[in-house]
Specification:
heterodimer, A: 397 residues, mainly alpha, MetI-like fold, 0% strand, B: 419 residues, alpha+beta, Immunoglobulin-like, 3 domains, 4-stranded antiparallel sheet, 14 helices, 10 strands, 17% strand
């Protein structure tokens, strides 16, 4: 029994270490190091030795001394097993091993005797592995997007694995793609258009949604239930089936290629979710506060303006951010309605750029960075509001 | 008193709700019904403009001293399918100039030639001529004549509003369009995209729900693919997966995991052999599904995490006392608590994946076996420019969606009764 859990512990922990080291090696390869072998088997074997040494030593020496010396020995042996590698790479290996052995802290020959220890070991390492895996899989494309924008097409065709940045170059040289897309491809204008459309959508949506949400939350009227269920159903309906009729009607009305046309469509498609999110919040405001307002002789308009809005600012902020992100990221309608580069939004402009096979990829990626950074910044900064909004309103994309 | 108050309340409610309802009705509901109308019409992208009479004016000299000029108007009906009724024509001339042998349909009054051309059939064309002469034999300046543009007017039906209908579009959708393959591709994409997103969502939620350092950061990072703009993410993936100089293929070749680069987005099938069984995998479709999972598992993750955090810790503590293993805890405590949210997520994601357009369009454009119904709407309507056909496909989508919703609510309704 003890032998079985020891074996599971050694294999699983070493497997985990091998995975992190492989990821480290891949990242190092992308810095231009010419590794051609992941060396999985030898790394796995010395990983097993490392874990074995860790549990055998147990508590006989101080934990810190133990992990430092074990990691040091591991890194040296890794250095000799691996292809020629620079010192910063081996130092990274050392840090990873340090992190790894520190995670092993709770395991000893004693703890391997506990109930269900094999399952616990598997769960533990799957958790660790999962976190590394998810973080890597998610961040890797963003990383590639960012570094590609600093490289050149020719350099990447020569060696598609070399993403190292040459910091000896001047800043203008390094940020060349960004200068080019602003000067040659007019991205300044597209940023303005995208911002105008998104902010406009937020304002108009709130203007329409706040009164409607208040009515749905508070007032009694015929058709109220029908309205609140149809809000949900409407918002399950796909944009793609609206495209052809809207295209034809907008063509006849001359609303295509106009920011105004885009604004109307964005507002209408985000309204249901905005109303849904807001009315949920309005319902949670105690009714007594409004009654006090009625006593003071306020009409409905005054109540909304002076009581409801100030009390629900967090909810309104989260709806506003949310609508902003939907409008900023929107692509389908901007593809259908905008033909002339004069009225492109950022997303449409990037798609237009990519239509020309001659466009070097660093420009495409620089454009992508520009369209991505604002949303990610907003998201990181206001994460708390947005997450509660996402779960409450169950999301439109 | 209370009666008039409730009347006032109603009136206020309608005033507050009406603007939003009207806007949503015009932009969301109206097009859904308009699709039904358009789908029964034989109409193409170039026909959607309202037909108008057009004229191109050409001025030619016919006499040596230029006191006479011939003006040719190339008249045409801009529409290829519709007639224009009661076409009126008018052109102005300088003083001292008059037309000779004027066409009987026209007359000349106060320096204007006014014509009544009657009805023009679809595709109607005519070279209409006027010969003008200066009254005092002076030279007529060609430029002045040319700079004056004729004014035409006529009545035409809006091609969208005519009442000639056809079933042709639906026939084409079902019989000529490889409909079965289209439907199968759509279902593969929808089903595997949905299930994959939910499975990864459960895994990620389970991870983040543990007591690990930096779990708030982890939650933020996990949502990145969901909040990022689709255009940027799709093009980044296209670059990553590019067979010639894409990072992924270059890495795999570099570490000798594969010998030849694989065109993950451009190859319809790949032959795989697992345990001696050879089978063909829809490669491009699978790649697109993976992108879909990558982009949308965060949503499932967020919902499941919210649910997990609401499970009382005491349940787990009690199970601990009873000596339950981690797997038993997951199966007997966690899973029953999240089935409800999973079934809701399944429906939401299923419907949205079913309608997904941008992701596939940006990655493959619908090539190499990734043509789904929404992609087909775009291809029919805008690439082939057959608007009626595109609308017919839209109608098929709406019908399928409605039937999913009905099935889903039946199932959920039954389950709710059992509980």
């Amino acid at each position: 029994m003890k032998f079985k859990s020891l074996a599971i512990f050694l294999i699983i922990s070493s497997f985990f270490l091998t995975c992190i080291l492989s990821i480290w090696k891949i990242m190092a390869t992308l810095q231009g190091l010419s590794f051609t072998n992941l060396n999985i088997t030898p790394v796995f074997l010395i990983g097993i030795l490392l874990s074995l040494a860790f549990v055998l030593i147990g508590n006989k020496i101080n934990h810190l001394i133990k992990i430092f010396s074990l990691s040091f020995i591991f890194s040296i042996s890794y250095f000799y097993l691996n292809e020629a590698s620079p010192y910063w790479y081996i130092f990274g290996v050392f840090l990873i091993t340090l992190f790894f052995t520190n995670k092993l802290k709770k395991y000893s020959m004693q703890s391997l005797k506990e109930d269900f220890i094999s399952e616990k070991i598997i769960f533990d390492f799957i958790t660790l592995f999962g976190i590394v895996f998810f973080a890597f899989v998610i961040l890797f494309p963003f990383y590639i997007m960012l570094v590609t924008s600093f490289k050149t097409q020719i350099a990447l065709l020569v060696n598609p694995l070399d993403f190292s940045l040459d910091f000896t170059k001047s800043l203008t040289e390094l940020f060349k793609s960004y200068f080019v897309i602003f000067e040659t491809y007019n991205f300044g204008r597209y940023i303005l258009i995208s911002s105008a459309v998104s902010i406009g959508t937020v304002i108009v949506t709130l203007l329409f949604a706040i009164p409607a949400a208040y009515a749905v939350a508070r007032l009694n009227f015929f058709g109220k239930n029908f309205l609140s269920t149809s809000i949900l159903i409407i918002y399950m309906f796909p944009a793609i089936v609206l495209v052809i009729p809207l295209y034809t009607v907008f063509s006849q009305l001359g609303l295509r290629n106009s920011i105004f046309g885009l604004l109307i469509v964005y507002t209408a498609t985000t309204l249901p979710v905005a109303i849904y999110m807001l009315q949920g919040y309005f319902k949670s405001i105690p009714k007594e506060i409004e009654d006090a307002g009625i006593m003071d002789g306020q009409n409905w308009f005054g109540i909304i303006l002076k009581i409801i809005i100030p009390l629900s600012l967090p909810a309104i902020a989260s709806v506003a951010l949310y609508v902003f992100m939907i409008a900023w990221n929107e692509f389908l309608f901007s593809l259908m309605f905008l033909d002339s580069p004069k009225s492109f939004t950022l997303s449409r402009a990037i798609q237009y750029l990519s239509g020309d096979a001659e466009t070097p990829r660093q420009y495409l990626m620089a454009g992508s960075v520009i369209v991505t950074v604002p949303v990610l910044l907003i998201f990181i900064y206001f994460e708390k509001y947005l997450v509660s909004g996402l779960t409450a309103g169950s999301v439109k994309e | 008193m209370s009666d008039s108050l409730s009347k006032l309340e109603k009136r206020t409610a309608y005033t507050l709700v009406l603007p939003a309802v009207l806007l949503v009705f015009a932009i969301v509901l109206f097009p859904i019904f308009a699709n039904v109308w358009i789908s029964f019409k034989d109409i193409e992208l170039k026909d959607i403009r309202i037909p108008e009479p057009r004229a191109k004016k050409i001025v030619k000299s016919i006499s040596e001293n230029q006191s006479e000029l011939k003006i040719i108007y190339k008249l045409r009906n801009s529409s290829l399918i519709q007639e224009i009724r009661n076409v009126q024509f008018q052109d102005k001339f300088p003083t001292n100039i008059s037309p000779i042998n004027l066409d009987p349909r026209c007359n000349f009054q106060s320096k204007k030639v006014v014509c009544n051309f009657g009805n023009w059939q679809a595709k109607y064309r005519e070279n209409f001529e006027i010969i003008i002469q200066s009254n005092n034999g002076e030279i007529i300046d060609k430029k002045i004549i040319k700079s004056q543009k004729p004014v035409l007017s006529g009545k035409a039906d809006n091609p969208l509003l005519t009442t000639n209908f056809t079933l042709e579009n639906f026939k084409k959708v079902f019989y000529e369009n490889n409909f079965v393959e289209l439907l199968l591709t759509t279902f593969y994409f929808t089903f595997f995209g949905t299930v994959g997103a939910i499975i990864f969502g459960i895994l990620a939620a389970q991870l983040v729900n543990q007591n690990i350092q930096g779990r708030t950061y982890m939650r933020g990072i996990l949502l990145f693919p969901y909040v990022g703009p689709v255009v940027a993410l799709a093009y980044t993936w296209t670059l990553l997966l590019d067979p010639n100089s894409g990072t992924l293929n270059a890495l795999l070749v570099n570490f000798n995991i594969i010998e030849q680069p694989i065109n993950l987005l451009g190859q319809k099938y790949i032959t795989m052999s697992i345990l001696g069984f050879e089978f063909k995998l829809r490669l491009a479709l699978t790649t697109v599904i993976f992108f879909e999972i990558w982009r949308y598992f965060p949503l499932a993750f967020l919902f499941i995490l919210a649910r997990l955090q609401a499970i009382p810790q005491s349940l787990y503590e009690a199970a601990e006392v009873d000596g339950a293993s981690p797997i038993q805890k997951f199966i007997h405590i966690t899973l029953p608590q999240i089935t409800a949210i999973i079934s809701i997520l399944f429906m939401i994601r299923f419907i949205w994946n079913f309608n997904k357009f941008e992701d596939i369009f940006l990655l493959t454009g619908g090539a190499s076996g990734t043509r789904t119904l929404p992609i087909n709407v775009y291809q029919q309507g805008f690439a082939v420019s057959d608007i009626g056909m595109g609308s017919a496909v839209s109608i098929v989508i709406v019908m399928l969606l409605l039937s999913f919703m009905v099935i889903y609510f039946r199932l959920i309704g039954k389950r709710a009764n059992e509980v």
